[in-house]
Amino acid sequence: MGLHFTATQNQALSLALDGTSSANAWLSYPADPLVFLYDSKYVSTYPLMSLDISAMPRTGLYELALTPDNNATGVYTFTLTSPLTGSVQANGASPAFSTRPGQDAWITFTAVQSQTPSLLINALGSPIVNATVYSPAGLDIYSQVSSVSTSGNTDDRDLSPLPMSGNYLIRMNPLSNSQGGTYTVTLSLPATATMSVNGSAVPVSITRPGQNSQVTFTGTQNQTLTLTVDRGNSSGSELTILKPGGNYALAGTASRWYAMSSATSNTTKLAASALNDGNTSMDVNLASANETTANVYEGAGVVWTSNTTIGTFKFINGSYDGNGIFAANLQLQQTTDGSTWTAVTTWTLSPTYSYTNTAAGVTYTFTGTPISARGFRVAGQVNISGNTSKRARITEVQAFAN
């Protein structure tokens, strides 16, 4: 049994197959047998299976072949759909999105770096979906199966501090046995308030489903405090107390420097948002290609819009393949104006940088008396005699108050 459909290159499609007996399915591009799509996708009687293709490889005619198991007979239904698209606003309305069997929903929202929104999905039909949130750089920052399988169920998820400003994508992908349904999506920023030690109780109103609250107070080191929370008519909640600080690098603008003639140069600077996006598993090459000039410097760091007081600066060295490490003269630097760099000579580094392949994947920490500055970076030499590394790699930079 074979069916044909026409698609365009890079088009995203979902194909749902529903049948009364088990079968195997093949999806191919007859004009080029070397184009691989799906080979022997099993379709059970559960009753629904779905195929998701994020980008069709060619423009043209495609063929779907279906072979029932053991010469069985049956009735099969095919549903071909492009993703449903829409948008949601933080603290705005909760739009509804109705999908066909197997159809994905791609919902965008705009956010600012370091915001901590909460995401609530309400199912009005019977879908079970995997909700994934992608950053503006296309990185997966959150993925969770949302068990909203019966009418009226909700799934509430909290997003960590967002790594950058821009447009985010929520991709809701129904699991293979999910029929179509209707979702409402609610995106909320925390309700905020400030309280003081020995001061009056502070009321905080949660006005949106799934919304969090953030209440700040000022304390001193070694102080002993008692915190009382009256949950009102709430059925319950989780309480977390966070120490001051956090990773301040998330709130800055990250850059990489390469081909610098001196350690404190500010030339050949490029934006590098992957250096402070919270993803510690992706290499960032500080130079786009191997350095050809001997003894040059490269760097990686972050600059803020105003002075920030930092007592700890970390960087995670990337992978090594002959390249990937600093070869000599690694140092921490600060800037008070965003462009003029000076070495921080009073802080200590742990562990000691080896300038060999053993530096790959290691987290290095500079610590010292806190300094107020517009930015911090690490810099070091590459392409020197006696060391094969002609460019360095770093996966992440991090900055903390202490």
Layout of SSEs?
Elements: E1 2-7, E2 13-19, E3 23-28, E4 36-43, E5 48-53, E6 60-68, E7 76-81, E8 84-87, E9 96-98, E10 105-111, E11 118-123, E12 129-134, E13 140-146, E14 154-158, E15 166-174, E16 182-188, E17 191-194, E18 213-216, E19 253-260, E20 269-271, E21 284-285, E22 296-317, E23 328-335, E24 341-343, E25 348-350, E26 363-382, E27 393-400
Parallel strand pairs: 8-10, 17-18
Antiparallel strand pairs: 1-6, 2-5, 2-7, 3-4, 3-6, 9-16, 10-15, 11-14, 11-16, 12-13, 12-15, 19-20, 19-22, 21-27, 22-26, 22-27, 23-24, 23-26, 25-26
Notes on the structure:
By secondary structure, this protein is an all-beta fold. 0% of the residues lie in helices and 47% in strands. The protein contains no helices and 27 strands. The strands form six sheets. Strands 19, 20, 21, 22, 23, 24, 25, 26 and 27 form a nine-stranded antiparallel sheet that branches. The chain is flat and about 80 Å long.
How many E-type strands? 27
Radius of gyration: 27 Å
On the 0-100 scale, what is the average pLDDT? Answer: 84
Helix content estimate: under 10%
* Cα end-to-end separation: 67 Å
The biggest sheet, with number of strands, parallel, antiparallel or mixed sense and barrel status, is: 9 strands, antiparallel
Name the overall outline: flat
